[in-house]
Specification:
The complex is a heterodimer of chains A (about 350) and B (about 525). Chain A is α/β, with parallel strands linked by helices. Helices cover about 50% and strands about 5% of the residues of chain A. Chain A has a single domain (about 25-205, about 210-355), classed as 3-Layer(aba) Sandwich (Rossmann fold). Chain A contains 14 helices and 5 strands. A 5-stranded parallel beta sheet of chain A has the order 2-1-3-4-5, with helices on both faces. In chain A, helix 4 (about 70-75) packs across helix 14 (about 320-355). The model of chain A has no long low-confidence stretch (mean pLDDT about 90). Chain B is built from 22 helices and no strands. The chains are: A alpha/beta (about 350), B mainly alpha (about 525).
């Protein structure tokens, strides 16, 4: 009798576990046609599993994955790179993602976009999810979750994502079944193509703040990033992407604090806002009124930054390495095809609107 | 630590494991430690209150027990020197002493409950009076309300009264009493157990038996299903309807009556299922608190089936003692003499009933809503009682009709709607608003029109969620119906077939995890009765 009971218990438990696992796969958001940024963080593992390493790693929020095009950096300068950014990626998330990446590879340069320095507290559960769900389980992921959770979140829901996404059962679509085992590719080495054009209209500056001091916790994590890079002999470069709309205004007071920090620790800091050398045209190079660059703006930004990487940091072209060139030429070709396809879609969409 | 939380599930699993791993004589220590950890997790500031209740009740019970022992010893020693009258007088004197000791215990503990739970309410009313007559309003202190204080205070005072009445032994070990007071499964929402029923089970050794653990686990799963899949989902609709009284009148209020009845049933019975299931998994039989209340054909029957332990507490410790007090006897005599026999004999019973229901309402919450709720229940019960001769005539005149299934179903529906209508005093912010909204059922045509043109689907749940709730309700009805048949509870019958038992648990767990209203976007709240 006891044997029968044990067999029953184990069998039912296995069936239940299989059902819950399947349900998790179906119910997790696929980020295929909406909020595609949710797939960015996880896509990096495909890259490292294929054995690819990079000379440059970009980390930061949306301003990096919409400003730097690794395929263009390769095409023009033979530099290999990856953008590990996600929507509203907070600085502690960037730190833990960098910590994780440096377990897989040791780049020559790490580029960090400083916009997220303005946040001292966890912000938004949905953005947390888009960044953290995609991470593989590691000490870095645990650290990132603990640092990022808002009051309403629980650690258990990161382990068992069904606890978070169970309520999606009533909004499932074909996409959820189609991509339950493998997610769609949304980016090209972390760069997400945006081909739309929506000119910057407002000249309005950001609202006045009560206190312009950047949170100390942001500097704590910047210290950690700096120390991490120093340990591995990696050059840490701080940048501020060229976008500067009133909603995401980069204040001079903030800029000064970053400049002071960079000077104190001998880091390079480039603020690309109002940098005319890049050649950004705000009437054509942004897809959302100046909040982010579109592909045309990003290619200009990448070209400009590539020159810097070669000139200031002596990065050499790897185009002569046939193995690397084979992989990257393929990446470049895929990027160009995708860009072309998306541009055609954009043109069709805009002509149908007219 | 809410029952409906992962931390509680882990805590429960660890407690159960430890409970069966330690030597049997130490099992009750595990329960005591777990109960205090559970209570500490709820709020460290709550602990002094429950400790005070435990220590004061221990002291009061011991003093009464010592007095009884001395009384017996004295009578035994002086049996030859005392005649019957002297013994009677001595006993009466000692009983009075014990009564005074009891009174100290009751005043102290109910005093704490009264101060913490009712000070704000009392001061609000005083301020309302001051507002009418003019004057400086009083400040209202913000007092903490320890979790489950109404439940553990009532249970412990029941114990003291039982010790006084000689119905149960005074506990000699203070830690054992501490476990009876703080036993964690029933600490926050009852049931209100009797010491004579529960205590010995708490301290007795229990073997890990299939016949206890599996039915207990099935009941725990069933309780969580009711709470998370049905109650908390329906609560979304209730919150929406109550949030905008201007928008949701007419048919919405009628819908609210039904929805809130379903919600509170699923919530409260779900919580009790979890409690009893935990007890059962530990080999401890906790008192049943419900017996298919919506199968009641009258309000009186309903109150014999709903929150049974609270009802019997008020009957045994308030209604009966109140009915036989000297002042009530004097009132009885006076009313019979001045109002005639027919009215006179009703006056004391009615007075005791009204006081009991007033206190029942007050126990549920410090607001006029609950007091009016209690008094309305009382009114319906008294009217039904008065109408009994009419029902009897009807039964005689139409025996076939009144014995038909149709008539039973009609009476059930009538009782359901009457109790549901009174119950919505729980959800609206005050008594006038409640009555205004009830009135809107008859005059708010706009509300009816909006509801009938699909307004139900604008209450925060889509059609698929309503289907899940409907399936949940049908399941609850089916389980209730099947459980009422057969000589053993359904879960015990299921436990005989291992595959069925585990399959049933697996289906419930799957349904809870997928369809439950928990996590971000939902307010998987505490069980409703934890606030009382």
């Amino acid at each position: 009798m006891i044997k029968k009971r044990i067999i029953c218990a184990v069998s039912v438990l296995l069936v239940l576990a299989a059902l819950l696992w399947s349900a998790t796969l179906v119910l997790e958001p696929k980020y295929a046609s909406q909020s595609r940024e949710g797939n960015l963080v996880a896509e990096y593992y495909g890259e490292v599993d294929a054995g690819n390493t990079h000379q440059v790693l970009f980390v930061g929020d949306c301003e990096v994955y919409e400003s730097f095009v690794p395929a263009v950096l390769w095409e023009k300068y033979g530099i290999t790179s990856y953008v590990r950014g996600s929507a509203q990626q907070l600085i502690w998330q960037s730190y833990y993602l960098l910590e994780e990446m440096l377990k897989y590879e040791t780049p020559e340069v790490v580029v960090f976009n400083v916009l997220s320095m303005k946040y001292g507290d966890p912000q938004n559960e949905a953005y947390n999810r888009m960044t953290l769900d995609g991470m593989r389980w590691s000490k870095s992921k645990i650290g990132a979750i603990n640092a990022s959770m808002t009051d309403e979140e629980t650690f258990a829901s990161y382990i068992f994502t069904l606890l978070r996404y169970h309520s999606r059962w009533s909004e499932l679509s074909g996409e959820d079944f189609k991509y339950m085992l493998s997610r769609p590719q949304v980016a090209y080495n972390g760069y997400m193509i945006q081909t739309g054009i929506k000119p910057m209209e407002s000249e309005r500056e950001g609202d006045e703040l009560f206190d312009y001091t950047l949170p100390s916790v942001s500097f704590d994590y910047l210290d950690k990033m700096r120390e991490l890079c120093a340990e591995k002999g990696i050059e840490l470069v701080l940048i501020k992407s060229p976008t500067n709309t009133w909603k995401y205004w980069w204040y001079d007071e903030w800029d000064k604090q970053i400049c002071d920090y960079a000077e104190q620790y001998g880091l390079d800091y480039y603020n690309f806002i109002d940098n005319e050398e890049i050649g950004i045209d705000w009437s054509t190079d942004t897809y959302d009124g100046g909040v982010h660059l579109n592909v045309f703006g990003a290619e200009k930004m990448t070209d400009h930054f590539g020159k810097l990487l070669v000139k200031q940091y002596g990065l050499e072209s790897l185009k002569n390495d046939p193995d690397i060139a084979k992989v990257w030429d393929k990446k470049l070709s895929e990027y160009k095809t995708a860009k072309q396809d998306m541009m055609e879609v954009s043109v069709k969409a805009s002509s149908s609107r007219q | 630590m809410s029952f409906a939380s992962i931390s509680f599930i882990i805590f429960l699993g660890a407690t159960l494991l430890l409970y069966y791993l330690v030597p049997k004589r130490a099992q009750w220590w595990v329960l005591l430690a777990a109960s205090y950890i559970f209570y500490f997790a709820a709020g460290s500031w709550y602990l002094p209150f429950i400790i005070f209740t435990t220590l004061s009740s221990y002291a009061v019970a011991r003093l009464m027990a010592n007095n009884s022992s001395r009384e017996s010893a004295y009578i035994a020693e002086n049996r030859e020197n005392m005649d019957k009258d002297a013994r009677k007088a001595y006993k009466a004197g000692q009983k009075k002493k014990r009564f005074h000791i009891l009174l100290v215990g009751i005043v102290l503990n109910f005093g704490i409950l009264a101060v913490l739970k009712y000070t704000g309410f009392a001061l609000h009313n005083v301020n309302a009076l001051i507002g009418v007559f003019g004057g400086v309003k009083l400040g209202i202190p913000s007092l903490i309300l320890p979790l489950g204080i109404s439940f553990y205070t009532f249970q412990t005072m029941g114990y003291l009264i039982d010790v006084y009445r000689g119905k149960t032994e005074a506990e000699k070990n203070v830690f054992r009493l501490a476990l009876f007071v703080a036993f964690f499964p029933q600490l926050v929402q009852g049931p209100i157990s009797r010491h004579s029923d529960l205590a010995s089970q708490l301290y007795a050794p229990h073997r890990a038996e299939w016949g206890n653990i599996v039915p207990g686990m099935i009941r725990i799963c069933w309780g969580f299903f009711k709470k998370l899949v049905v109650a908390d989902t329906v609560m979304i609709v209730i919150k929406e309807i109550v949030s905008d009284t201007g928008k949701y009148g007419g048919a919405y209020v009628l819908f609210l009556i039904i929805a809130y009845s379903v919600e509170i049933y699923a919530d409260f019975t779900g919580g009790i299922d979890v409690t009893i299931g935990i007890g059962e998994a530990m080999g401890i039989k906790i008192a049943e608190n419900f017996n298919r209340p919506f199968a009641s054909t009258s309000t009186k029957e309903y109150w014999n089936r709903w929150h049974i332990t609270m009802g019997s507490w008020f009957t045994d410790y308030v209604f009966y003692p109140l009915s036989i007090t000297k002042s009530m006897q004097r009132l009885s005599k006076w009313s019979r003499a001045h109002l005639g026999n027919a009215v006179g004999k009703r006056v004391p019973v009615y007075t005791a009933t009204i006081i009991t229901w007033f206190l029942t309402g007050l126990w549920h919450g410090a607001s006029w809503n609950f007091i009016v709720w209690g008094l309305l229940n009382c009114l319906v019960i008294l009217i039904s009682q008065e109408c009994q001769p009419l029902y009897n005539k009807l039964n005689k005149r139409f025996p076939r009709l009144t014995k038909s299934t149709f008539w039973t179903l009609y009476l059930r529906a009538q009782t359901f709607m009457i109790m549901g209508t009174i119950r919505i005093l729980d959800v609206y912010r005050n008594v006038p608003v409640t009555f205004k909204m009830l009135g809107s059922i008859f005059y708010d045509g706009r509300g009816w029109q909006s509801f009938l043109s699909g307004g139900m689907l604008s209450l925060g749940l889509d059609i698929s969620a309503f289907i899940v709730v409907a399936v949940g309700i049908l399941l609850m009805l089916a389980v209730s119906e099947i459980s009422s048949r057969g000589d053993r509870p359904l879960k015990n019958r299921l436990a005989d077939k291992p595959l069925a038992a585990f399959g049933c648990m697996a289906i419930l767990i799957f349904a809870i995890l997928i369809f439950g209203s928990y996590g971000i976007g939902f307010d998987a709240s505490q069980f409703i009765y934890t606030q009382f």
